[in-house]
Amino acid sequence: MSVELPMNPAESEDENDEKGLTRGSFVKVAIGGMCVGYAGIIGYPIYRYLNSPVEKSAAMAAVSEVALKDADKLPLGTAMMFRFGPHPSMLIHHKDGSWVALDAVCTHLACTVQYHPEEDAIVCACHGGRYDSKTGENVSGPPPKPLTKFVAKVSPGSVVVTRA
Amino acid sequence: MVGNLKPGSKLYEWFNDRLGLDELVAFAQHKTVPVHKHSAWYYWGGISLFCFLVQLFTGVLLLIYYRPGPDAHESVRQITYDIHFGWLIRSVHNWSANGFLLSVFVHMFSVYFMKSYQKPREFGWWSGMALLMLGLLFGFSGYLLPMDDLAFFATKVGLEIPNSVPVVGPTIASLFRGGSEVGEQTVQRFFALHAVVLPLLYLPLLFVHLWLVQKHGMSLPPSEQEKPVAKLKTIPFFPNFLLKDLAMWLIAMNVIALMASLFPWQMGKAADPLAPAPPGIHPEWYFMSPFQLLKIMGNLMPGALGEGVGMGVFTLGLALWCLIPLYDTKSAGGKRARNATYFGLLALGLYIGTTIWGYVGL
Predict the structure, then answer these.
(1) CB-based contact B86 A46, cutoff 8 Å
(2) Structural domains of chain B, ranges and CATH numbers in brackets
(3) What is the ipTM of this complex?
(4) Are the Cβ atoms of A45 and B82 closer than 8 angstroms?
(5) Least enclosed by CB within 10 Å: which of A3, B61, B219, B274?
(6) Distance from the first to the final alpha carbon of chain A
């Protein structure tokens, strides 16, 4: 069997103008289509393979509630870190007895923030961003947005954090 | 876009001035491929090259999730059952490994029987033999990595081969093992061997091999050499033969994809050093022949003698096989040439015969 290759592309283009679809242009389109098909058939499984942990973490991030066992024993004026799905988050037991749960990822460049009890402020060590420890409001420094606030429900033996 | 890269275009000249495209094109066009009734054998080197490229590619993908050491079995289980399409990537890696060794064997025997190892292609033959040895080591070292029961025993048995070498053997086997037993340390070492050391050795050797093919061009089998020059037909390698090569690659890819999806590679229980060897245990097909040879010799001559003689016969045969370009020099129809052909038929017959015998005796 022999494969004929279009030896002179200019010629086949001329034919195109005259008769519309020629054998040469049909073969070109067919081969192009086949290549795209193969690229898809090979590319899709590879994309899903590489994306697997991303999908897993997205599924984890979809949780709407997390129960923190024994968190109700957190001393006044201190904070603890916990994971809300894959996200580092923060539970603060204020000196006035109120409870605040916040996303602990700085809205500036994604460093993890820290609670400073002596100043009663949330501070990001990376670029000096500061947040209000009650509301999560960005007070000073580069952060463009407030920290996401969650709802914290305290019951004996646990604190349940849910999305607002 | 590609159309703008035609010779004479501004874009082509821009690249040409800097990269010397003209020289590359001239280098590629210098080669022609003979057309005759044995031409089909010219594809097998290319098919093994394709399988090797698939191995590189899927190997890197597996590397993303594989964890050598104590976690090895669990990480392969995750790849096979938890990660999307992980079973497919792993199956393709396994099937393509088999396709690689199969096409390498076909390539080697076709080169042998077409006498393509003769002057000036001796180093093509020797680099090919070295690539085959490395290919078998790839297979052996990769087989342990899932650390299931079959892999565990295959490696234990396989390491008895260096172990049986006098004086230095046990030291070499222990260095491979990283201890006195196959375990976490062995997986870690085999992984380093499989994914780093062997590719580093293989790739430069592969370039030498391919460069030699390009330098000397395709060899003609003796039956064609006898014909008058006017009767010989050839086609240019670039692009004519390359396109046919690519068509073969497409077929190879489809076969691998089909095998991998219809017969996904299975995985056994985690290796347990205290569990007995599973019944009917045997090596992969490419190691079946030496495995069976050792079995036969062991039955004929019980004890260490059988193993020694078996290993000795095998090593001698391999040495003769490698040295064939020195023995069978230019004497197309002569006695030496015929002897070399008989030796090739004997080797091929023994290899296939003992392999079948091995499978029948399971």
Answers:
(1) no
(2) 33-282 (1.20.810.10)
(3) 0.88
(4) no
(5) B274
(6) 70
